[in-house]
Every structure is written in C-alpha cells, then in structure tokens.
C-alpha cells in the first residue's frame, strides 16, 4: 500500500522591490476599505523609509478589486496610470433605489418588476454604450468648493451636480436572476458605475442600485496578478527584520 504524499505548500513569490526608485503595486482592495486605507497600510509598512505612496484611480469603500499603487519616483506617473481604461464586473438589484446608488444607504423607493422581460433588460444597455454623459452620485468623492460631495450629502445638503463626459466601451449583462442582474462594464476614467446602474434602472422605467462591484482590469494590469494586502504587509515586515 503506497503512502500518501504530502501536498506541497505553495507560497506567493515577491520580487526584489526598489521602493525609492519607484514600484507599481497591484493590490486587491478589500471590501469596506477606502483606497486611502490601503495607501496608509502600505506606507506604514514601509517605515522608516520616508516614501511617497499614492494610488491611481479611487475605488469606493464597498467596491473590491484592482487598485494600483505607486511608490517613490513612480508617483509622478500616477495620472498616466489613472487615465487608462477600466473593466468592472458586478451585480445590481432591480426594483429599488437608494440615495447613494449602492448599499451605503437603505432603499428609499421600490418598483414592481412585473412585465420586465429579459429582452428589455438586454436592450436597455444600448443607450449607455459609446460616448455618454452622466452625473456623479451625490454620495461621491467629487469635490465641490473644496468639499467632497459625500460630506455634504451626509449633512443633508443638496448640491448642483455637473454632467461629465465618459466613454463606455462595453456593457454586457452576464446573468439575470431578478431582482439581481450581473454585468460586465469596460469604461473610461471617471465613469461612475453607480450612476450608470441608476440610469439603467430609469431606462427600464424602474429603479436599480449597485450591490456588488469589482474592478478586474486597469489598462493592461489585471486583478489576477494583484497582491492581497495582508500578504504584502507580512512580506514587507519580514524584510525589515
């Protein structure tokens, strides 16, 4: 009778980083972390080195997925990385709306789903493909007069929102299990997926809000190549010992 062989332990390999000269780090942002939380965690792990650390493209706290961090001299190229095309996958809930367009706030309106067909759902994506205009959510990090919109929204203040031009290269419906609908979106910098989903609900004479969002790609960088925050932090701490 042959002995059972032990499965090998596979550990993720890390390159020899040169953070001062500049490193581009692909991070899988955890759920409910802000993009600034990730930057702060990595910056603290690099102490006592006094290095600049910044991110290219903010992700909402309730979103997960690819966040690009730059260190040292590479922070000068953040705008270049931030300008690249993005890809997202996610889930929306049809038949209700929330003030924040996602799960940050509770539903304020509900709509019947009677009569909404799969054909209508697929067809409703068409107006949102190409060069479009959209308003940012009232609960967003956009600054108006030096203050972020979500701060004003949480105080109950209304702010006049400005239309922005964005490009959506692809808007695919990948699963329909009402009230949930899964999707894949490829878009330009500055596109608010929450606003897109809210407008999608209106296109169906209904309501919709975002319940799950993951950034899977930014430019040529893929989520599958990203580090988990905890793994990278553990590695950086070991290197200092």
Automatic annotation (TrEMBL):
UniProt cross-references to CDD domains, sorted A to Z: PseudoU_synth_EcTruB (cd02573)
Family: Belongs to the pseudouridine synthase TruB family. Type 1 subfamily.
InterPro entries in the cross-refs: PsdUridine_synth_cat_dom_sf, PsdUridine_synth_N, tRNA_psdUridine_synth_TruB
A Pfam cross-reference name: TruB_N
Native organism: Pedobacter panaciterrae
This protein's UniProt keywords: Isomerase, tRNA processing
Protein purpose: Responsible for synthesis of pseudouridine from uracil-55 in the psi GC loop of transfer RNAs.
Pseudouridine synthase II N-terminal domain boundaries: 52-193
Name of the encoding gene: truB
Residue stretches spanning the membrane: none
Reaction equations catalysed: uridine(55) in tRNA = pseudouridine(55) in tRNA
Enzyme type, top EC level: isomerase
Keyword check for Calcium: no
Family matches, as PANTHER family: PSEUDOURIDYLATE SYNTHASE TRUB1 (PTHR13767:SF2), TRNA-PSEUDOURIDINE SYNTHASE (PTHR13767)
Protein name: tRNA pseudouridine synthase B
GO MF, one example: tRNA pseudouridine(55) synthase activity
Top-rank lineage group of the source organism: Bacteria
Active site (catalytic residues): 60
The UniProt record lists the keyword tRNA processing: yes
EC number: 5.4.99.25
